[in-house]
Amino acid sequence: MDMKETQLWVNDYLDLYLYAGSIGDTSWQQEILEKLHDFYDEIKHSITNIKI
What we know:
Layout lengths: L2 H20 L3 H23 L4
Helix pairs in contact: 1-2
């Protein structure tokens, strides 16, 4: 996934998080946060394994 796709993916999930909050679905919000956190961990792991 390139930088542009990553930004779009994160923005989409943040929009979903806000929508879930607006309809009062806190369990869905928690699910979204977990996906964002997992994705962050994946990105962080990828960056730390880059050899220069």
